[in-house]
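Just curious: can you write whichever protein you like plus the matching structure tokens?

***
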Amino acid sequence: MYANNWMTVREDTVRREDGSEGIYGVVDKPTAAIIIPRDGDRLHLVEQFRYPVEQRRWEFPMGTAPDRAEVDPAELAARELAEETGLVAGRMDFLGDLDLAPGTSSQREHVFLATELREGPISREDSEQDMRARWFTVAEFEEMVRRSEVVDAQTLAAYLLLLLRER
């Protein structure tokens, strides 16, 4: 039905349990990585304008490979972290998987905790020109969530995986 460098949209004919036919629209996007950069009690977030909601959003660094390519999730995570923040992780631990929106999208996201961080060069894509990045304490981050200043579902779900790991 539609394709660009980041996604395809398809419409499938489906047969329901009662035997009737219907259609199902699916957004296919490549595997994504979400990275939680952590240095002690600090978390590194990025902020950018999100066109569909017409607002800026604070979130953990995340992304997919260009041209809908499928890339090893750990490699993708390291690349996205460096690209968006300039940070290079000495250690990258897998926390778990997320389905972005399983009712409409096939995209699977892999969540990583990045630690032992050092500064490197930032090399953002053209679409990330307006991106800002900064450190927040865990308390500041959690207060931003309470005040609905961090509302990105992927970021919130990734943070839950981090909290569960620490229990």
Summary: The longest helix spans residues 153-166. Helices lie at 73-85, 138-146, 153-166.
